[in-house]
Amino acid sequence: MLIKFNHSSTASDILEEFRVDLQMEAMRLSRAYTAATVVVLLLLVSSQNLGGAYAQRASNAKARYHYYNPMENHWSLHNAGAYCATWYDAKPLSWKQAYGWAAYCGTSGSTGQAACGTCLKVTNVKTGASKTVRIVDQCSHGELSLDTNVFRDLDTDHSGFWLGYLTVNYQTVTC
What we know:
Layout: H1 11-48, E1 57-66, H2 85-88, H3 93-97, E2 100-104, E3 119-124, E4 130-138, E5 144-147, H4 148-154, H5 159-163, E6 166-173
Parallel strand pairs: 1-5, 2-4
Antiparallel strand pairs: 1-6, 2-5, 3-4, 3-6
């Protein structure tokens, strides 16, 4: 702040100019504070787009298959025995049908309830085939257990069923 005054300036004039300068400085700081608040809010919203979960990501992980049989189980997570049924079985049919089902038991990111509902892009390392899956269950072996329909779609050279697993890369995606 620079207050200009001359010999004819009165104390009242100087105080008025000081008051105006203070108001302008307060407005500038308010705009800066508002901009910083917007940035923080955008960061929070971005983190929520990951389902509140830490990002799951792995290279050369093992993905096995699991018989969820969503159609035969009438798209019921409960009937399929999925861990996430408690929180997600009431979701609309369109939500349950949007992506293939998977169990996540990896070592990166959130697990258990925090992972439920998160989507992963899974890519077969050998063939490059990829699919997006939704985590509806947890598992106790390997990194992923994929519904057999998803496993078949990724197993384009049919070697996965012979081995009992696929080698995949996966990462969290928005769904």
